Amino acid sequence: MKKKDIVTGIVKRVEFPNKGVLETEEGKVIVKGALPDQKVSVQIQKVRNGRAEGRLLEVLEEAPDSNESPCIHFGKCGGCSYLTMPYVKELGLKEQQVRSLLKPAVERNSIRFTWEGIKTSPVKYAYRNKMEFTFGDEIMGGPLSLGMHKKGSFYDIVTVSGCRIVDDDYRAILSATVDYFSPMYDKKEITFYHRMKQEGYLRHLLVRKAVRTGDILIDLITTTQEEHNLTGYKDALLNLQLDGRIAGILHTKNDSLADAVIDEGTEILYGQDFFYEQLLGLKFRITPFSFFQTNSLSAEVLYQTVRDYIRSLYDQSNIKNDGVVFDLYSGTGTIAQLLAPVATKVIGVEIVEEAVEAAKENAKLNHLDNCEFIAGDVLKVLDDIEDKPDLIILDPPRDGINPKALKKIIDYGVNYMIYVSCKPTSLARDLEIFQENGYMMSRAVAVDQFPWTSHVETVVLLTRQNT
Questions:
Q1: 303 plus 447 within the same structural domain
Q2: Annotated binding site: which residue ranges?
Q3: Where are the alpha helices (DSSP H) in 397-457?
Q4: Which position among 55, 89, 186, 193 has the lowest Cβ density within 10 Å, counted as fewest Cβ atoms?
């Protein structure tokens, strides 16, 4: 195979994350965006060391068991990948991907290991409690769009008014926003932010909704390059017939060059800038920029899994139920607070200061006085903590754990750790170092937090040998 060749074949499997393995007469080709059992045509882009990579040109035949997509934007929006797959097949795919990545660690294992399959999300559609929509146009000079990036594009935006991973309230708010600003855009009275030109006003629309109470926060993110009276927009939103209740309408200013929602000053147009959400009996104060799992009901499955792993250790008297627990990469302290009732002290470490402040507020809200949260890099903070842990919980970002921090964590010599991973490739890399230092997997399970996407969470119980 040579660069620019066009080949066809059947996708035999999909490796994490969303890399189809195509078998052709000329050899194997890796292609992003293809689904298992599809017949596709691919243009070769790279051939190196006998490995070919290509760009998906066309799906020639769908998989025999494929479904019709329930979302009108599928294939155009760059969001969901697996909407035409039966959900049970998607679960099997994700479980196989995680098991394949963990296989080297299993083979290195010297203690009994139990694989516990994959846990499903309690809801398959309308599961997201937060969405960040982007303003733009779908074609250059076209009408105003608000939604998600077009598949394969950094600039084109698809208005996802029929998105299925959010509920009707999100769709109504999105449509009302487009309807309000489109006439102004057509008359050249208002602009959207162009990433290339670094010019324009409308940037993002952030919407959050509490699963338990139905409270909604709406935040319009703009630059300061133009000034507009947003009273009419606020009134248009308040006139919507929604299932939930609008708790607050906000306006955030963001002149950062980064293509991200960054708070550089927020004013309240209506109501308040927070609401409360509940997980496993605990209450959490959520602001527009709080870190919080975006699938609340599946987050309960994830956190209950962590709690069950710990409870099994207590039941077997493997650890004492009045010890010190480290919750490293603790975010807003959800896991720390779930463990607080069975620990003398829980210490959470998180580099994002806003998340740490939220964790402290939430601990007070839940009347927990044995939680300490420290803002800083785990690599540096561990040097200053005098307490020694009896148990360590790890919930790092997608890139995994800094190798230098990993060494400090291992040096504590605790008998057990629980690793919560949002990227199994990073987990597999870190497991190699853990196993080199005597920590072996004794239990592991995958959790589907994000149906119809390529993402999957994994929970692993690590046991130190000779304990």
A1: yes
A2: 293, 329, 350, 395
A3: 403-411, 424-436
A4: 186
